[in-house]
Specification:
It contains two helices and two strands; from the N terminus they run H-H-E-E. By secondary structure, the chain is α+β, with helices and mostly antiparallel strands. The chain has a domain of about 40 residues. Strand 1 and strand 2 form a beta hairpin. The longest helix is centred in the N-terminal third of the chain and has 10 residues. This is DnaJ-class molecular chaperone CbpA. It comes from Klebsiella pneumoniae subsp. ozaenae.
């Protein structure tokens, strides 16, 4: 009884997705200067079966 209620309570929260990890090389000198950089990457778009359908470019 109590176990089921606790399980139902947890399911009310939105499910979290996977984190996106990107490696970016940055030199120490670049961090000291007041510069900005645009980072581009492709974000995979998954279908309902968890397979990649396409990739969306992001900036």
């Amino acid at each position: 009884m109590f176990g089921q209620q606790a399980h139902q309570r947890r399911r009310q929260h939105a499910a979290r997705g996977h984190d996106l990890e990107i490696e970016v090389a940055v030199f120490l000198e670049e961090t000291l200067a007041e510069q900005t950089r645009t980072i581009s990457y492709n974000l995979p778009v998954y279908n309902v079966f968890g397979m990649i359908e396409s990739e969306t470019p992001k900036r």
